Amino acid sequence: MKLLIISASQRTESQSAKVANYLAEVTQGFESITHIELCKRNLPLWDGEESSKDDPSSDWLAINDELHNADALILITPEWSGMASPLLKNLLLMCTSEDVAHKPTLLVSVVSGINGAYPIAELKMNAFKNNKLVTIPDHLIIRNVEEILNIQTDNSATLTPRDNSIRQRIGYSLHTLKHYSKALQTLRKALIAQPFPGQENYNYAM
């Protein structure tokens, strides 16, 4: 199984990327793990036309290959003004069900303060209608992110109770995602082997 982690901050050296690197380090049960930082890739602002994805300067085709090959996704977004990252929303608009339908997705919100719930709610409500990604019931909100999930340079340093707690919660969420990945891999194979008659007419959800 292959896991794709996408961090969607518009800043380099971001806390979202820090969280992504931590998740990649501790995740178990996947044959390969790929991390994409969207701010370091060139994606056009999608205009609704398929031709816009083929811009020679765009990294879309390479990213789409990773999406197509992935068995599970982790989508990480900072919270800005209560919203998910525009980079992430643009990417999800470009995704089609042909490449990502019925793939389990763990949502992660990263925030410097104590909120972080709004991006999760926004994405669960609006982001997966037509691409048919499947968000697992569990999600993660990494609050006060500058203070946790940092590299322990001092061997004598001990984790704070809150840091230890979120690391344990992350372990649970990754464990859940792994099992969703196995289950939905079987589902996708079954849907390919036994397609619904005329299912091409139902690419868009109601």
From TrEMBL:
Look up keyword Flavoprotein and say if it applies.
yes
Task: Specify the NADPH-dependent FMN reductase-like domain's residue ranges.
Answer: 1-144
Give the GO molecular function terms.
FMN binding; oxidoreductase activity
The record's listing under InterPro entries reads: Flavoprotein-like_sf, FMN_Rdtase-like_dom, NAD(P)H-dep_reductase
What organism is recorded for this protein?
Answer: Litorilituus lipolyticus
Please list every transmembrane segment annotated in the UniProt record, as residue ranges.
none
Q: Which GO terms describe its cellular component?
A: cytosol
Q: Is Flavoprotein included in the keywords of this UniProt record?
A: yes
Give the protein's recorded name: NADPH-dependent oxidoreductase
Which keywords are on file for this protein?
Flavoprotein, FMN
